[in-house]
Structures are given as C-alpha cells and as structure tokens.
Design a protein that fits this description.
The protein is mainly α. The chain has eight helices and no strands. It is globular and about 45 Å long. The two termini are 34 Å apart.
C-alpha cells in the first residue's frame, strides 16, 4: 500500500513541477505558479491523486507531455548549436558537468523524451487518445515559426508510432 501511494505521490509531484515549468515556458513565472495553485485546489485532482488509478496517472503525465512538447518545439536548432553561441556557461555547483551527446544524436533527445511520455499517456487509458494532439498543437501555437518545429514534432510522432508497433508483452 505504501509503495503504491509513494509512486502516486512522486508522479503527482513530477506532474506539478512539469505544470509549473510548462506555464513558465509558455507565458511567465507567475502563470506557472498560478496554474499549480489552481491544480492543487481542484476537487477532482485532490480526489484522484490519493488513489492509484489510471485517472490519477493521466493528469501528471499530460502535464509532463505538455512540458516535453514545449521543450521539443523550442529546442535550439543545429545551426545555433554549431555557431559557437554558449548558453548557461556559468560554473555548475559541486563539479557537476553536462552530459555530452554525440552531435548527430542531439536532435533526437527531445523527440525521444516526448515520444516516451506520449506513449505512456496512451498506454494508461484508451480515452487518453485525445491527448495525442498535444505535440502538434504545441508546434502550431507555441512557436513563432511552426514550420521549423514540424520535423521535430514529426520525429516524436514517428518514434511513438514505432514504439506502438512493438508488442509490449513480447509475444510472438
């Protein structure tokens, strides 16, 4: 019982953090905190977050999907990465360094993360199919140039479809 409740609590906390981050990325810091405050006082959220049901998994996973979709469509292009522009070059505490990926793999990071979250959302409940449009709508509405975000969004959808074509149980 404790393990199930702890898992639900951790996923709910991650979903709340993702909601704050998505509100911050889309609008402003205050919007993220306002969205979190509204979510906390919602009766349905308060009721479902206490139980380990598919409904209690949906809201945090959709918040994570929204945040990942925003990161996906606003990811820096390869031209910016190769131009020598450094962002956030301040020293990191405790000697922590960034994980360096091979340059050819960098464009696949956010599509892969978005695809995993999208597949998880779809796997929890069949009625979550309505959330399949979130990455596409984010590409259209959250960027100034939606055409530039479409290849990354298409990659996320492609990876999701590829994952969906593989039998999750491994049956022959």
């Amino acid at each position: 019982d404790f393990v199930a409740r702890a898992g639900s609590l951790l996923l709910g906390t991650a979903g709340l953090a993702a909601l704050i981050a998505a509100g911050r990325a889309l609008f402003a810091r205050e919007v993220g905190w306002a969205a979190a405050a509204i979510y906390i006082i919602l009766p349905a959220a308060f009721f479902f977050e206490r139980m380990l049901l598919a409904d209690s998994l949906t809201a945090p996973l959709v918040a994570l999907l929204l945040w990942a979709s925003v990161r996906l469509v606003r990811a820096r292009s390869r031209a910016v990465e190769n131009s020598g522009v450094r962002r956030g070059s301040a020293k990191r505490p405790f000697g922590v360094s960034r994980v360096r990926l091979e340059p050819r793999l960098r464009p696949l990071v956010w599509p892969a993360i978005t695809a995993v979250i999208l597949w998880t959302v779809l796997l929890t409940k069949i009625s979550n199919l309505v959330f399949l449009v979130i990455p596409g709508l984010t590409a259209l509405l959250a960027t100034r140039r939606p055409i530039r975000a479409m290849p990354r969004t298409a990659a996320a959808y492609g990876l999701t479809a590829l994952r969906g074509s593989i039998d999750p149980l491994g049956a022959p």
